[in-house]
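#struct-help
A.M.: can someone run this one for me? Single chain, 286 residues.
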Amino acid sequence: MPELPEVEALREYLDEHLTGRVVERVLPLAVSVLKTYDPPLTALEGQTAGATARYGKFLALRIGGLHLVTHLARAGWLRWQDAVPAQPPRPGKGPLALRVVLADGAGFDLTEAGTQKRLAVYVVHDPQEVPGIARLGPDPLDAAFDRDAFAALLTGERRQIKGVLRDQSVIAGIGNAYSDEILHRAKVSPFKLAASFDEEQTTRLYAAVQDTLREAVGRAHGVAAGRLKAEKKSGLRVHGRAGEPCPVCGDTVRSVSFADSSLEYCPTCQTGGKPLADRRLSRLLK
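D.P.: on it. Structure tokens below:
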């Protein structure tokens, strides 16, 4: 799933490649992709693209006086084309969900692999009209998101820290992969209760959030949209690396599986050497 660093890199890429160009056509190719109907997609045609903004994992493309907002979900992606094929694609065939064609012949596709179609597109006057954006918590890269603001989010929070970091209404933009990376860097068990962090642990976790995300944004800066997925994977130390040695201590990275996802961690670095059992059976590790 694209998370804050990749979506930020896509925002930068679109700012460079899309701003100032005129939208000629917008073609919805998957029935489930469009979540709004007024204004219609056709209202974007003939309009000039402005700056692109990021809200957590959402991209908001200003086109004329409207915004084309998308959330790429788990398997979505944006694919830029310097020359869009002249032959229109057939709706419902393959991963294509939406195509934007520019007046100069360039454009981009929104695609979604797999059978679970969760990619979402909205056309709105204001990005805050999108329910998912309206519910977002603070952006962790915002200058106002300091250590004290982070500590306030943990106060009284009786959930496991892994779930808190992934909750978009608490902190915007962190998903499954970077929450694993943050917790590994902070040397924290994913099952530790958020409210149980002391001052030193809170400071260490805040630093891990900042360092992990800013380093990932730095790695993704200037990378072409088509190479961002590979860049993300290459920078991960524990997520998706179960069975491999931890790059910090050499212990074997372990995994805990859930219904539709998994988490990865290092027992030596994060849980005092104790492997975590299945979520339903595990006790919280301090």
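A.M.: thanks! DSSP finds eight helices and ten strands in the chain.
D.P.: also worth noting: Residues 280-286 have pLDDT under 50 and may be disordered.
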